[in-house]
């Protein structure tokens, strides 16, 4: 038996697919082929059941109630925080802040860090491959504080030019905000090196891990990240919940982002004393069932194993890439040596939207457009791409269906 066959057996692909109810759905009369995982991942029934169970059997508010339901759900919610802490190997549960998602997590740090540490003439570094959610908050801080936004360029393969990054770092740099894994290119950035270079000059680093956490093992202590953020919905969990990991020393120094119920120790009309971590950053009633569902999703992927997931998805990436390269007129955008299971491509003379529309009629879900990375599109001189992004529940057979559909779409549009 081949190594790939052994690996297919090791992650029990048919059993895994059966765990995701939506994968049996038909779209336009065709079996669904879901290749839009970089946008949002599908949910296993365990996660769906956890959300239903919350509303049927556990519904109450957390932290402030003395009655049984409130006590029980508070314990469940705080256990979910511990699950996230262990998954990221954070030092303390209170370094885990629940948010609405990656976007809110970045906005939280940009706002709070900016208020305290950014002044006129300071500099903030991002990269050319960032999602808009890791550009706009920093742009806004720069406009408000009179700071400058500096950009690490990339090469034609979609890799950061580290020598240029080194030149950008200086005494005016106050923070570096960088993606771990590009949602458009699939590039996995050398985060440990990026952080080490910044730390050599006492510069903190925020890592956007929205695309990384579904695909690779993340150890925030090994990375030595100051802040690490991601969204639940890309990690096979619910929408509307996300995580901000922050080193204790940084979170203690930052002012609250939002204030209100749950963030306080004492309130008078003259003065408010804010709560300790993590409640200082968790104003109002949170997405309780979202936090619990995210913990269930994390437990689920850990039963499969992130190393096995990464290996299998790499197999899918290589297979799809090799097949795509044989189709006349196709050009892949993003050919980094270190890459996750995301393929963006264009077809000579054809608009991505037209191809995506035809693929949809065949039951194949891909993403078309700029993928919230317009500066990156400008870098490559294109309006957008077709993006196929794979998860561990996808198969080579689905890739064959996709490629056949793509060839059909090209013939129809030429």
Oligomer: single chain
Structural class: alpha/beta
Stated plainly, the CATH topology of the largest domain is called: Aspartate Aminotransferase, domain 2
CATH superfamily of the largest domain: Type I PLP-dependent aspartate aminotransferase-like (Major domain)
Query: Taking Cα atoms only, what radius of gyration do you get, to the nearest Å?
Result: 22 Å
The shape, in one word, is globular
What is the CATH top level name of the largest domain? Alpha Beta
CATH architecture descriptor name of the largest domain: 3-Layer(aba) Sandwich
Strand order of the largest sheet: 4-10-9-8-7-5-6
Number of helices: 15
Question: How many beta-strand runs?
Answer: 17
Q: Any idea how many domains?
A: 2
pLDDT averaged residue by residue: 96
| Span between termini | 42 Å
The residue fraction in helices comes out at 40-55%
Low-confidence stretches: 1-9
Largest sheet: 7 strands, mixed
Query: What percent of residues are in strands?
Result: 15-25%
């Amino acid at each position: 038996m081949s190594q790939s066959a052994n690996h297919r057996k090791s992650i029990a692909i048919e059993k895994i697919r059966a765990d995701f109810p939506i994968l049996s759905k038909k779209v336009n009369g065709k079996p669904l082929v879901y290749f839009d995982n970089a946008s949002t991942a599908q949910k296993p029934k365990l996660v769906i059941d956890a959300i239903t169970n919350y509303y049927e059997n556990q519904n109450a508010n957390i932290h402030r109630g003395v009655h049984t339901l409130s006590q029980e759900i508070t314990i469940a919610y705080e256990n979910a925080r511990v699950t996230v802490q262990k998954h990221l190997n954070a030092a303390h549960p209170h370094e885990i802040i629940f948010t609405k998602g990656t976007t809110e997590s970045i906005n939280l740090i940009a706002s709070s860090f900016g208020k305290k540490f950014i002044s006129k003439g300071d500099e903030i570094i991002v990269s050319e491959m960032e999602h808009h959610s890791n550009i706009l908050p920093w742009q806004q801080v720069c406009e408000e504080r009179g700071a400058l936004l500096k950009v690490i360029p990339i090469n034609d393969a979609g890799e950061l030019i580290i020598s240029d990054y080194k030149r950008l770092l200086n005494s005016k740099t106050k923070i570096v905000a960088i993606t771990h894994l590009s949602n458009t290119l699939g590039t996995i950035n050398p985060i440990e090196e990026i952080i080490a270079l910044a730390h050599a000059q006492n510069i903190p680093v925020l890592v956007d891990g929205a695309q990384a956490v579904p695909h690779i093992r993340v150890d925030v202590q090994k990375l030595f990240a100051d802040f690490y953020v991601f969204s639940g919905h890309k990690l096979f969990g619910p929408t509307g919940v996300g995580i901000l990991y922050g080193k204790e020393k940084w979170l203690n120094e930052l002012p609250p982002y939002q204030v209100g119920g749950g963030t306080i120790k004492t309130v008078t009309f003259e003065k408010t004393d804010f709560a300790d971590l993590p409640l200082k950053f968790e104003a109002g009633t949170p997405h309780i069932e979202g936090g619990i569902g995210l913990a269930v999703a994390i437990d689920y992927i850990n039963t499969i194993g992130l190393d096995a997931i990464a290996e299998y998805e790499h197999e899918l990436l290589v297979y799809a890439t090799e097949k795509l390269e044989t189709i006349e007129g196709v050009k892949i955008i993003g050919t980094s040596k270190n890459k996750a299971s995301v393929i963006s491509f264009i077809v000579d003379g054809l608009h991505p939207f037209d191809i995506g529309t035809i693929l949809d009629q065949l039951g194949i879900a891909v993403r078309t457009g700029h993928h919230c990375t317009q500066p990156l599109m400008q870098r490559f001189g294109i309006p957008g791409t077709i993006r196929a992004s794979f998860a561990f529940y996808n198969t080579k057979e689905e890739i064959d269906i996709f490629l056949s559909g793509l060839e059909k779409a090209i013939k129809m549009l030429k």
